[in-house]
Amino acid sequence: MADVATLSALTATPHANPFPGEEPKVVRLALDAGERVDPHRHPDRQIVCYLLSGRMELDLDEETHELAAGDLIRFDGRREVSPRGVEDCEALLVLAPRSSE
Fold first, then answer.
1. pLDDT of residue 11
2. Where is this region: Disordered (predicted)?
């Protein structure tokens, strides 16, 4: 079986989940220019963020990464993360369960 979803149909903001309850967790993140998600962690996850459109600053602990449309970043969910829209932006995030270490 295959599940199909379109990003344009996901209207919840800033987060929308195309496949609720499924692994890996997939989230569409849409931020307006200047909008920020408060710092937080996903300690049981590895995260991949693909910026679909716009520009974003992604704070990871004490580092800030400037992302433009088409950029892809991967990071450990134990790091404190806080994305901010530099411009209106949309990203697709995949939060995969951490493999046993």
1. 72
2. 1-22
pLDDT digits (tens, 9 = 90+) for 73-85: 999 999 999 999 9
- Would you list the domain boundaries of the chain? 23-97
The beta strands (E) that lie in 1-101 are given as 15-16, 25-31, 45-53, 55-60, 63-68, 72-76, 81-85, 89-97
Q: Which residues lie below 8 Å from residue 35, measured CB to CB, with a gap of 6+?
A: 14, 84, 85
CATH number of 23-97: 2.60.120.10
Question: What would the two tokens of residue 95 be?
Answer: 């939060």
Residue 101 has pLDDT above 70, yes or no: no
Q: What pLDDT, on a 0 to 100 scale, did the predictor assign at position 94?
A: 95
